[in-house]
């Protein structure tokens, strides 16, 4: 039975996140409903690289599933495009080796976070960027980012609700780029904890607006306590941009 | 009592159009609710340059109202930004002469219509463009447009539901421009009938895809019958872009 890998994009606005939850509209449940439809009612389980929260978007989420169906991958793309709701799209389908696993085989992920710095909030961007019209000292933010890059215990930068025990993670890259009125943060690392990117952004914005000194980042990491870092930036600015595999 | 003119932008997705309707969320009712709040419960009537339909967006709708409040125009902008829901924003407020009228004094309007020509539909654009991945002959569309420019009876290009008797209108400009995967139609004229821009777009797309010959436009105009023109293109691609005054 072939194993399929799909790259998908979704607008997270109208979803209660990626993972199946009773009575809620989720990406996984919509996707599995379409697969069941394609397989005459047989439930096909889907495994993703990881979850995304309510309101969080994806430009390159990766999932896998096994299916007895063997039509060409371009026909899978067309079928998904026709059957999935218009806030999810499958960009690419590949046949992968039997032992491929969308979650266990990731070697890294890239997240982006979009800040809208226009003076007036933009009604067309309300679900796609975080409106933050205040001035930011980018040099200070760069310095703070340099303290976050590398391998650290990120307990201070993940939701207190996390069940994961080992909170040591490695961040390979943090950078940000101005694009018109937008400031786009890029985070690349082998893996991220629950809410980690949003707390990193919230803290970097606190540094940029002078509430936290760049040097303080070292102390915040050492505290290993969520209450020392900045606020969790809102979901609508966050995009799971790319998932890396060997 | 000063008269105020406001330029506003709104994402039409979650509105049942501009105009007040019982039990429906409309731009006018949200705006008037905020004005009532600012005026301690007194109802302030708002007059727009014209209505927009459910799902139709505005980048430059114009409204006027009279108010006894006299704070500086930049404070009006800030107050509106704070009080209006996040899918409406007031871009500009000006004090205008007593006899200004947002509807009767317009000298023209510009509408834009955005077509998304990417092969795969984009979940992030589902409410902001019309996905039309088929090939289009732009030369034929330009020829068809040339027959529509000028003063004509546009009965064939307006909703049969229109109550207006005189259906003669003047279109000054129709052009379209490629912008990445988007094709943006621009329509400028002194005034447009109900659904007119969307029917013009639907008909131009029929010309571009070879279903209607450019020359046939002349005959369609002469029929003065809605059933001869193309389909009404969907609301989500349409933007009231600018309203002109002397």
Features:
homodimer, 246 residues, Alpha-Beta Plaits, 2 domains, 10-stranded mixed β-sheet
Helix-strand layout with pairing:
The structure is a homodimer of 246-residue chains.
Chain A: E1 3-10, H1 27-38, E2 47-48, E3 57-66, H2 73-83, E4 88-96, E5 106-116, E6 130-131, H3 138-148, E7 150-153, E8 168-179, E9 182-189, H4 196-208, H5 216-223, E10 238-245
Parallel strand pairs in A: 3-10, 5-6
Antiparallel strand pairs in A: 1-3, 1-4, 2-3, 5-9, 5-10, 7-8, 8-9
Helix pairs in contact in A: 3-4
GO molecular function (chains A, B): RNA binding; tRNA pseudouridine(38-40) synthase activity
Protein name (chains A, B): tRNA pseudouridine synthase A
Subunit structure (chains A, B): Homodimer.
Describe this structure in words.
Chains A, B: It catalyses: uridine(38/39/40) in tRNA = pseudouridine(38/39/40) in tRNA. Chains A, B: This is tRNA pseudouridine synthase A. Chains A, B: It comes from Peribacillus simplex. Chains A, B: One of its GO terms (molecular function) is RNA binding. Chains A, B: Its EC number is 5.4.99.12. 2 copies of one chain form a homodimer. Chain A is an alpha+beta fold and about 250 residues long. The first copy, chain A, has 2 domains: about 5-95, Alpha-Beta Plaits (2-Layer Sandwich); about 105-245, Pseudouridine synthase I, catalytic domain, C-terminal subdomain (Alpha-Beta Plaits, 2-Layer Sandwich), CATH 3.30.70. Chain A has 5 helices and 10 strands; from the N terminus they run βαββαβββαβββααβ. Chain A has helices at about 25-40, 75-85, 140-150, 195-210, 215-225, and strands at about 5-10, 45-50, 55-65, 90-95, 105-115, 130, 150-155, 170-180, 180-190, 240-245. In chain A, strands 1, 2, 3, 4, 5, 6, 7, 8, 9 and 10 form a 10-stranded mixed β-sheet that branches. In chain A, β8 and β9 form a beta hairpin. In chain A, α3 packs antiparallel against α4. The longest helix of chain A has 13 residues, at about 195-210. Chain A is globular and about 60 Å long. The mean pLDDT of chain A is about 95. The interface between A and B is medium-sized, with 18 and 18 residues.
């Amino acid at each position: 039975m072939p194993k399929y890998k799909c790259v998908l994009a979704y607008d997270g606005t109208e979803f209660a996140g990626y993972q199946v939850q009773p009575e809620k509209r989720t990406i996984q449940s919509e996707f599995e409903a379409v697969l069941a439809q394609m397989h005459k009612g047989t439930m096909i389980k889907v495994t993703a690289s990881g979850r995304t929260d309510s309101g969080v978007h994806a430009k390159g989420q990766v999932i896998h599933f096994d299916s007895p169906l063997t039509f060409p991958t371009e026909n899978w793309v067309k079928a998904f495009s026709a059957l999935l709701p218009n806030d999810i799209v499958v960009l690419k389908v590949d046949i992968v080796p039997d032992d491929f696993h969308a979650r266990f085989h990731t070697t890294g992920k890239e997240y982006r976070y979009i800040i809208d710095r226009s003076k007036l909030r933009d009604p067309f961007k309300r679900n796609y960027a975080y409106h933050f019209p205040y001035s930011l000292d980018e040099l200070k933010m760069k310095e703070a980012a340099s303290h976050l890059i590398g391998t650290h215990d990120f307990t201070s930068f993940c939701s207190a609700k996390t069940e994961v025990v080992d909170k040591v993670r490695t961040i390979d890259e943090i950078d940000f780029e101005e694009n018109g009125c937008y400031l786009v943060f890029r985070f690349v690392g082998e893996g991220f904890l629950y809410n980690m990117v949003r707390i990193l952004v919230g803290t970097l914005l606190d540094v940029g607006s002078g509430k936290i000194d760049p040097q303080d980042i070292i102390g915040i990491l050492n505290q290993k306590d969520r209450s020392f870092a900045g606020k969790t930036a809102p979901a609508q600015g966050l995009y799971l941009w790319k998932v890396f595999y060997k």
